[in-house]
Write a structure and sequence with these properties.
Heat Shock Protein 90, about 25% helix, 8 strands, alpha+beta, 5-stranded antiparallel beta sheet, about 190 residues, disordered N terminus, 4 helices
Length: about 190
């Protein structure tokens, strides 16, 4: 059983000290004084914050009021990751179509995540709508020029390097990607 000793008083303003107590070396504790205050720990070491997802650039819920601001944030991040010129414009337009679809057809709000992974910039937009019909998902033909709607998914697919869609009664998640850096020209699959 560890032996407890009385804690001697440390004069105010004392630089510090250590009192070691315990029954054996395997069960020894220390109490430290620092500037007259008692603590049972060493001073904390400087911390390095490591995010759970180190490449996550944006994770944000949005509604109609945030669409423009979110598009500007995506533009800044995509540019900082290495997209420029037409590639940047295409990616941002694809993302804009997805967030607009989430607001119009997915319950009025959504969630966007943007991250960089293995030479690609990925964007995922989720909503809480009723899903997209299989017929609509399978239709990959370009909408007629005079069609007022129906361009969103088609444009997102055309303007990104890849697109994946998960949809159901609880909502839809669309993920698009664009190659960045040296691999930027590889994998581009525009259908002109």
């Amino acid at each position: 059983m560890p032996q407890r000793v009385g804690l001697p008083a440390t004069p105010a303003g004392a630089a510090g000290g250590i009192l070691t107590y315990g029954g054996n070396t395997a069960n020894t504790s220390e109490i430290r004084w620092r500037d007259g205050a008692m603590t049972n720990a060493d001073p904390p070491a400087p911390r390095t914050v490591v995010p759970i997802e180190p490449s996550l650039l944006i994770a944000e819920a949005f509604g109609q009021a945030q669409v423009t601001e979110l598009r500007h944030s995506v533009t800044s991040c995509a540019h900082a990751c290495g997209l420029s010129g037409q590639r940047l414009d295409d990616f941002v337009l694809a993302v804009n179509e997805l967030i607009t679809n989430a607001v119009r057809h997915g319950g009025g709000r959504g969630r966007l995540r943007l991250w960089r992974q293995a030479g690609h910039l990925l964007c995922e937009v989720s909503d809480h709508g009723t899903g997209i019909s299989a017929r609509r998902l399978d239709d990959r033909t370009r909408p007629a020029p005079d069609t007022a709607g129906g361009w969103g998914l088609w444009l997102a697919r055309e303007l990104s390097d890849s697109m994946e869609v998960e949809t159901g009664a609880a909502g839809t998640t669309v993920r698009i990607s664009a190659a960045v850096g040296e691999r930027e020209h590889i994998g581009r699959h525009r259908r002109d």
